[in-house]
Amino acid sequence: MEIIFGVAIVCYLFIAVSLSIKYFSLFSKEQNISPEDQTICIITFAIASIFWPIVIPISYFELFESPNSVKKTLVGVNE
Q: Alpha-carbon distance 31 to 44, whole Å?
């Protein structure tokens, strides 16, 4: 049981660090952000990285909510 718990912790931390790296790499590419917006972005990235087991399924649910939403997103079709 301890091994399973240890593996789960390692997986959680690995994904959290991976998300943090991705978020901050996207953040660093943005040039025109005010200091207030930078602070809000960093707080949002930290919360999303910590709570990714909740955030990612919700975002996927919203993305795939209707059958045409993925097609619209990928193709850029506007109705």
A: 18
